[in-house]
Amino acid sequence: MSEQRFSSYIGGQWVEGEGDQADENPADLASPVGHYGTLDAARTAQAVDAAATAFPKWSLSSPQQRADILDFVGSEILARKAELGRLLAREEGKTLAESIGEAARAGQIFKFFAGEALRIPGEKLASTRPGVDVEITREPVGTVGIIAPWNFPLAIPAWKIAPALAYGNTVVFKPAEIVPGCAWAIAEILSRAGLPEGVFNMVLGSGRVVGQALVEHNGLDALSFTGSVPTGHALLKQAAARALKVQLEMGGKNPLVVLADADLDVAVECAVNGAYFSTGQRCTASSRLIVESVVYDEFVARIQARLATLTVGDPLEEGVHIGPVASQAQLDTDLSYIQAGHDDGAELLAGGRRVERGTEGHFLAPTLFAANPSDRIAREEIFGPVAALLRADDYDHALALANDTEFGLCAGICTTSLKHATHFKRHAQAGMVMVNLPTAGVDPHVPFGGRKASSYGPREQGRYAVEFYTTVKTAYTAA
Ligand code: NAD
User: Fold this and answer.
1) Among the options 91, 116, 249, 381, which is catalytic?
2) Is 249 annotated as catalytic?
3) In total, how many domains does the chain have?
4) Claim to verify: residue 167 and residue 290 sit in the same structural domain
5) 92-103 pLDDT per residue, tens
6) Where does the record place the Aldehyde dehydrogenase domain (predicted)?
């Protein structure tokens, strides 16, 4: 595949950035996916200006026009899911099957919000005053900044851009630095979808320059961010200072509890899928495996045997289960946490080392430590194929360990007990709960989000997206 140069998209025009940044292929550093130039603050401001200028007219566009445009985008992504999935696999490193699945999900999300554009909810109530009608309607919030991470470079932009446009907002989308190709692919499809100029803009560059210029621009009305806790909390302070509507989806340290009564085949599959698929680079990854003492040794033996069957390698190759870590920076983080595991006295049960392949890439063996709840690897988000195994005395202890974290995105339990499953669903301090399922893997038509340090503001996805992307108006009419 030839190398491409990816551009930004502002006011209906493709805009070249400065310099020549390589878009790395983490499985083969010698063959970059492409190159791109980065914008400066002034160019980023132009994108916000373009979106703000386009907003008044677009906010009054017909729901059918918006539905047709989003449907076009969804159909094209679905028709090209194999090609887009291949781009994603080369750029981010998840396996081809996972990447094609993500592309399909992005297409389905655009299709879902095409329908939602035609179903914008409202209410009409009787007033407390005779002869007066009260209407509650929803209007777009305005110009929305979208800042996305690298780990779902098609699906996360889709689940922010699609509802933003469906409800009549204009958009400036800033992708993560290491996935400009997927961002460009989305922008390229949107550029042919019939949107008026300025309604959708995409800006390539660093968080420090482009992200900051976006957030600091007075023309911005709302900010939807997904990324790490430190970045999210820094942005929250800036947003609060100027009363910007904000939605943050951040990190996780998601527990998967395995009780003594669990079907251990199911439990091991949930653990392996949740902790290691997509190279463990999911905010919903099961990075804490909490196993009841009675079955602990058997669980360890089974998961070690299962991990030995997994192949780490080039995500485009058949038979590969786990692709490379997405970047050198993330690999350095993963290796530093493996060292921290050793330093804190955790016992290495699997992996813990880089893997050599035919190409130079960021390959890391799936890693499992028997840890203590206070160890850094059991408390801090690593965002790689590294999991901490914790021993629990009984269900109550397991639940307490599961909730003993600053995060609250997703919590899972493997059990055949209705009593424990029901109790866990009610008492897990998380925005999402899974019973006999991996913590990662969610449906696009229902709300997504967490509690505690994991999330801030209204939920994403499904019908709940209307909360963030619209503002409510209450109108009174004397009959
Ligand atoms: P990150 O916080 O480093 O970057 C996220 C985005 O913010 C990038 O586009 C980056 O360029 C931008 N950014 C960085 N500094 C900025 C600044 N000062 N001003 C404005 N923008 C700035 O996160 P990442 O490494 O790209 O992604 C990994 C993180 O994302 C993990 O913590 C993971 O848990 C989280 N994540 C959360 C969810 C969720 O829905 N909860 C989903 C996926 C990933």
Assistant:
1) 249
2) yes
3) 2
4) no
5) 999 999 999 999
6) 14-474
**pLDDT grade for 65, boundaries at 50, 70 and 90:** very high
At residue 2 the predicted structure's pLDDT band, cuts being 50, 70 and 90, is low
Q: For the segment 290-326, what is each residue's pLDDT rounded down to a tens digit?
A: 999 999 999 999 999 999 999 999 999 999 999 999 9
pTM recorded for the entire structure: 0.98
Per DSSP, what are the bridge partners of residue 410? 432
3-state secondary structure (DSSP) of residue 36: strand
Ligand 1 touching residue 45 (CB < 6 A)? no
- Rounded to whole angstroms, the Cα distance separating 170 from 142 reads 6
Whether residues 29 and 82 share a domain: the answer is yes
User: How high is the pLDDT of residue 479?
Assistant: 77
Does residue 225 fall inside a structural domain?
A: yes
If DSSP states are collapsed to H, E and C, what string results for 253-316? CCEEEECCCCCHHHHHHHHHHHHHHHHHCCCCCCCEEEEEHHHHHHHHHHHHHHHCCCCECCCC
Q: Whose CA is nearest to atom 17 of ligand 1?
A: 207
Task: Compute the half-sphere exposure of residue 294: CA atoms within 13 Å on the CB side of its CA.
Answer: 9
Q: Cβ neighbours of residue 7 under 8 Å, at least 6 residues apart?
A: 14, 15, 16, 17, 36, 37, 184, 204
Tell me which residue range forms the domain holding 123: 4-250+454-478
The CATH number assigned to the domain holding 153 equals: 3.40.605.10
The answer on 87 and 57 residing in a single domain is yes
Write the residue with the smallest CA distance to atom 10 of ligand 1. Answer: 207
